[in-house]
What does this fold into?
Amino acid sequence: MPKVKVSQQDKALRIGIDLGTSRSAIAASNGKRKWVQSLVGWPKDFVARKMLGDRVLFGDEVKEHRLSLDVVRPLAHGVIKSGTEKDEESVAELIGHLISLVEPRPRQKIFAAVGVPAEALKVNKRAIREAIADYAEKLIVVSEPFAVAYGMGALDNAMIIDMGAGTTDFCIMHGTMPSVDDQRSLTTAGDYIDEQLLGLLTERYPDADFNMNIIRSFKEEHGFVGDSLTQLEVEARVEGRPVVHDITSEMRRACESILPAIAETAMDMIARFDPEYQDQVRNNIILAGGCSQIAGIDTYLMEALSEMGPCNISIVDNPLYAGAQGGLALAKDMPYEYWMDM
Amino acid sequence: MSSYKKAHQRASKATILYGVYRDNSGSGKLPRPEQQPRSRARRGISIGVLAVLLLLTGFLVHTVFRDADNFVSSVEIQKARYVAGDRNKGLPPLITEANAGVVPIKEGNLTGFLSPRSGFFSGKGPVLPPADKMAGKSETVAGPVFGAGDYQALFDQPGVAIADLFGLGVRTIVIDAGHGGEDPGAIGTNGLMEKDITLKIARLLYNRLLDEEGINVIMTRDSDVTLSLKHRVEYAREHDADLLVSIHLNTIPNSPLTIVETYYFGPPADDQSMKVAKKENYHSGYAVTEFNELINELGDALKQQESRKLASHIQKNVYNTLSRQNSNIVNAGVKTAPFVILLGAETPAVLAEVTCISNTGEEARLAKPAYRDKIAGALERGILSYLNQLRQQDRQRPEQGSNIYAES
Ligand SMILES: Nc1ncnc2c1ncn2[C@@H]1O[C@H](COP(=O)(O)OP(=O)(O)OP(=O)(O)O)[C@@H](O)[C@H]1O
Ligand SMILES: [Mg+2]
Ligand SMILES: [Zn+2]
It folds into this structure.
């Protein structure tokens, strides 16, 4: 009779998932982590199915074949559009796909902590729970900034500002589970910047044909606020011919466009606490999400908030995975007694 | 980080995790639309397969054994025991430890060894040792496996396990913490109560099994509540349990002796077993008629055989673990006794008297979390090694049904 060894790899897989408007990421206790664009493509018709196979497509593949697909961005605007079955199904498919990317062994149990945009949590927690119930043995759903805070160990005297694509989410941590008042959400984030940038550029160069994807990737590479050191130039077609355009000041204005509201909201939320506590929180502000990578954004916000007193702002090391990693930390730390009746 | 700050962080982490739990437990249990019916369907099919197997084997056993004179010796080697109990007359005949092993084999009630793979038919010996041998040599297996009908033969050979019949889907294990609420169970000299310790061990065992692949684990109680045995049994039935492990602590009045013993359902092997059963059946909640009905429903040799195997895996592991802590501990082995909780469960079920709370040394050890965790670990290993062995058997015979046809 061979000895039964209860090795670590016999155990359940813990995963953290960050369901985002534009990107979704997963981190697992087997050390794997992956991300995909939050795009789900359903073959449109018979011809598409013939060509692509009868399957759902995700991420880059969706972009590639978008003409043959019904493309769903299931979390557009930070919520699952309520009542639309396609969106709920798409979220479920996306989660299933993410889980397959970290390769659980067959029949391996999955204990998941899923971070979702704070708004989605309010609006349709049930839909999210149902979307993942098919894949996970046990499940907790938390707001995305909370997952980030947990992962960073910022449990007390801290504020997380998660600047994503669809929403900028705020969360104040004060040693307990954040209440509704401790969390807020603005619909001005990365997508808003893109729209602003497109608007400003079409205004300045009415003849040029700017493409949204190019604008976004240009922002991701060169986005900045405050003073710029170099001049930014981008190529766009004018009457079919490529022409180089200077977009330095448009880029700055677009990127800065979201910041006054963010600074305002942050101050407003902090002001609800008593003065001594305010100081502590102001000195522990953490920026997360893709837009936290815009150059100079921490300095800009620090200056804006300094009217309340001195403050300190840091940026998470890895915005792409901070949420998923935080979810994973939660999934690993959650005591069994708690999983038990969830 | 200062130690104050660290402690503070730990404290708030706990607070926050509790908050997350509260936040998520409200929306509570999710109905899993597909999974339940799927497993039901599988079970339905399996029962169909089982019925066919029974009929088929009954037939085979008759035809083959009629002219197999040397069969009896094969039976003796396997120590397969069978009692022709009349299922319709309530309790099966009492059998003492002394005569349990030498039940005469009557014609028509043959107990045999029918291993499709190992080639009884081709004249070769069985490949797999019998269950009690596989589980280790330290335990004494007392008491008969009783059931009715010739299909007994099928189940007495180790090849056909529940795994074969019910597929390898997720198994639901019910952990039953003995006693609780108004029923404290046994009480140690220094006031330690059986109900508290069984609950603590049950929780630890739950935690250990929860992570395990292919296992769905539930507890009959997770707090200090009074639960009748009937209630526990029904709970296990409702949840389609595949295994039931009831955790208890023994008492031997006026004796410093500490024993470990594991029971499965059957007639009491001796007076002591009967006493233990009486003690544990207290609070049963069953009316006499219901009780008789349960017994009539029994006759489930498969369940009995599997219960015995499970019991021996558990007994071996608990004894081995505890004897390392206390060299005076006595291995009382695997026994049968008419415990209500074991009878009522539809599944392989055992009751483990993991140690004696009446021994003051043990009482002191049981008060320590580390010791309780050792016990939980031993129970876990027992359960897993039992399941592992089922899985191995399953792997060794991927197509059970077709083998029977092929070789007969
Ligand atoms: N290096 C970068 N610099 C500037 N912006 C970036 C950078 N990388 C990504 N972004 C922008 O960040 C946004 C995506 O961020 P993130 O992945 O955090 O969003 P999300 O989680 O999908 O959205 P949400 O949190 O709103 O649901 C997009 O607008 C993207 O263009
Ligand atoms: Mg996000
Ligand atoms: Zn007891």
User: Anything to note?
Assistant: Strands of chain B lie at 171-177, 215-219, 243-250, 259-265, 330-337, 349-356. The interface with chain A takes residues 8-9, 11-13, 15-25, 27-30, 32, 34, 134-136, 170, 203, 206-208, 210-214, 222, 380-381, 384-385, 388-389 of chain B (CB under 8 Å).
